[in-house]
Write a structure and sequence with these properties.
The protein is α+β, with helices and mostly antiparallel strands and 110 residues long. Helix content is 31%, strand content 35%. α1 packs antiparallel against α2.
């Protein structure tokens, strides 16, 4: 798992327009980020966390990392039922899901 970088510690303010459930965008300030794969990062904006693509100083929101597909939810539930919910292996499951999303994004770009 990549190290978390606190945005404010870098002395910069980073704002991104994020869509809400209605499809309207709202400008949010990033608080921390960490690299997932290549140009894809997990980035926190207040109370929400997003997977974003950063290229040529353009930040593109890809998906909310707090929302899971049915398949991802089943994977997390299986992990929970196997008793790994309360140890570091649970964060490995989340990491696997985020890397899968990143790979899917790169596959669509080709």
């Amino acid at each position: 798992m990549a190290d978390v970088i606190m945005i404010r510690d870098l002395g910069i303010t980073l704002k991104v327009n994020l869509p809400n459930a209605k499809g309207e965008t709202t400008e949010r300030e990033a608080t921390w980020m960490r690299n997932i794969l290549g140009d894809i990062f997990e980035m926190a904006f207040g109370v929400t966390i997003w997977l974003v693509h950063i290229q040529d100083s353009i930040i593109t929101p890809l998906s909310c990392t707090m929302c899971f597909t049915e398949q991802e939810s089943k994977m997390l539930e299986l992990g929970k039922s196997l008793g790994i919910y309360y140890n570091s292996n649970y964060s490995d499951l989340i990491e696997t899901i985020l890397k899968r999303r990143a790979n899917e994004f790169y596959a669509r770009q080709k």
